[in-house]
Design goal:
The protein is α+β, with helices and mostly antiparallel strands. The chain has one domain: Ribosomal Protein S5, domain 2 (2-Layer Sandwich), CATH 3.30.230. The chain contains 3 helices and 4 strands. α2 crosses α3. The model has no long low-confidence stretch (mean pLDDT 85).
Length: 145
């Protein structure tokens, strides 16, 4: 197994704002599905992530075939989720929110995908779930052209 370690958060993403929105969001359903894209034709960026949040004990589940998202991008997705939830050191990841986070679908491109594009797509999937909008993330949304 090969993982690309993702340790740099994009300074262009509004992490502080989405953390506050995530904490304030009223989770009333047992399940949520968020779809996030980082698709830009001009700059050759491509990643799509589908994340399902299911109310239960709080785990991370990689349930996506290798041909949809290679496992090497798992760390970028997991690191982004942890950054959004602002998990304190020493605390069991995801347990404080009572949801499991399942990567269930997505897509990639052999030359246009990177850990950064998967960071952005994961950020956008969580933004989709909680209805978070911010001027800084509009540039990463799917091109209409």
């Amino acid at each position: 197994m090969r993982l690309l370690i993702h340790n740099a958060k994009s300074e262009h993403l509004p992490y502080e704002e989405i953390r506050e929105a995530f904490k304030a969001f009223l989770f009333t359903q047992n399940e949520y599905l968020g779809i996030g894209n980082c698709i830009k034709r001009a700059s050759e960026k491509y990643a799509v992530v589908h994340i399902r949040m299911v109310k239960d004990s709080g785990t991370f589940v990689w349930d996506v075939p290798e041909n949809k998202i290679p496992i090497e991008y798992m760390d970028a997705i997991l690191s982004t989720l942890k950054s959004i939830m602002n998990i304190p050191k020493g605390m069991a990841p995801f347990s404080s929110y009572g949801f499991s986070y399942q990567v269930v679908d997505g897509s990639w491109h052999p030359t246009d995908s990177s850990t950064k594009t998967f960071e952005i797509a994961t950020f956008m999937a969580i933004a989709d779930i909680i209805g978070f909008e911010h001027e800084k993330i509009r540039v990463y949304q799917r091109d209409k052209s």
